[in-house]
Amino acid sequence: MQADPTASHFVDGSYHEDKDGAAIEVLYPATGKPIARVYEATDAVIEAALAAAARAQSDWAALRPVERGRILTRAAQIIRDRAEELARLETLDTGKPISETRVADWPSGADALEYFGGLAATITGETIPLGGDWAYTMRVPHGVAIGIGAWNYPAQIACWKAAPALACGNTMVFKPSEVTPLGALKLAEILTEAGAPPGVFNVVQGAGRVGAQLIGDGRVRKVSLTGSVPTGRRVYQAAAEGIRHVTMELGGKSPLIVFADADLDAAVGAAMLGNFYSAGQVCSNGTRVFVEASVKEDFLGRLAKRTASIHLGDPLDEATTMGPLISAAQHDKVMGYIAKGQAEGARLVAGGKAGTGWFVQPTIFADVTDTMTVAQEEIFGPVMCVLDFDDEAEVIARANATQFGLAAGVFTKDLARAHRVAGLLQAGTTWINTYNLTPVEMPFGGTKASGVGRENGRAALEHWTEVKTVYVGQGGVDAPW
Ligand code: NAP
Predict the structure, then answer these.
(1) Is the CB of 207 under 6 A from ligand 1?
(2) Cα 215 vs. chain centroid, distance in angstroms?
(3) Dmax over Cα atoms in the chain, in whole Å?
(4) What is the pTM of this model?
(5) What are residue 444's DSSP bridge partners?
(6) Which of 53, 228, 425, 481 has the least C-beta neighbours within 10 A?
(7) SS3 for 141?
(8) pLDDT tens digits, residue range 258-309?
(9) Which atom of ligand 1 is nearest to the CA of 378?
């Protein structure tokens, strides 16, 4: 099985190869076998991409916004026309079941291109009356932007960054995770086919070193990262050197709170979606499931029964509902956390074992306490921790007692309580009676260590533009000299 791209990079409107860079073997997570090879960007490739983005930016920004928007909307349609081919590629790149990649990854990317394509022509400033004189503002693009992606949603992340960035008149150099380099190249190809001029969206491959080099370049005005908190700290610091704007989409350890009056089957379904989709490799997962003590055993019983129906297997088989983890390293890390959970006294309710290769069984721990390692650190695998609680004030305090603040969920039939709790949880996004839905119309991003800025929704436009003010003098100049 091979998925070799036309070339490693996409620069200035076309595929670009330079085999002087270190080879990166792309492994299919279901087999651990190579399916493609790309080469890390050399200094020459990095320079070509940055120069192309800088050259293209002013003409791109000067286009009528409706024309920029039309190109993005056309790209969304091309993605939909090529849906099956793209879903298959995403499955090969990530190991996610085809049943997921058909509905979640590229489709969400297409939604972002369509949504921001539509919004492009609505980005306006304001007029400010000043009693005779007046001022007006414009929302102008930052200029050249760097996008850096994680490996868990490579196609979606590339689209979520490119769509608003380009809609606002920025150009971009995007560096995917070295583990999943294939999807972003397709996005560049598709945007070009849709009419994006050369240099507007470029892709270069490589590890963190390449990302660091991109961020440090003097032509760059904005950096948008999706990744872990430790990487976020490094990237934020590097961006600060050049006083660059940032968006940081980082990790989480989100609480999902189930009150005793909740629809328990719905809550069980949400907890499973929020822990086992994409084999648990989702930033906003509700990995700390707080269940009111009086319904805990009922909840656990239903949860264990439904978890037993998860089908691990070949991701290209339509019947498969959970794939492997992304890499041997991630597999070993997750198995290490499972061992730690058991050693620290958590009760294993389901799973706990490694499958063949990089598969890990969907795992549920009960009787987890706040101080256990599995309750504190982001595991990024199919490991759910169930904790119990007795009252509302207690659970809110415990839910907030973490460095993270990406997401949260509340299940209850008491509407007043749902909104009260949602208001008190320290999270960028809180779901009431559902979990992990991220439609592109809705802002998404974290608070506290989970991030800075927002993707999606109209809110994203504020993070891809800055305000330019013009003061208009209408009378003479009143100078004291
Ligand atoms: P990661 O190790 O932090 O890497 C993220 C990206 O940053 C990769 O492309 C990485 O390159 C690059 N990078 C690493 N060091 C860098 C540096 N010094 N300068 C510039 N770039 C650098 O994260 P990951 O393991 O790929 O992804 C999992 C993490 O992403 C989890 O913590 C998850 O919660 C988070 N995430 C957050 C969101 C969100 O929206 N909040 C969404 C998805 C994932 P290489 O890896 O190629 O070396």
Answers:
(1) yes
(2) 19
(3) 84
(4) 0.98
(5) 455
(6) 481
(7) strand
(8) 999 999 999 999 999 999 999 999 999 999 999 999 999 999 999 999 999 9
(9) 32
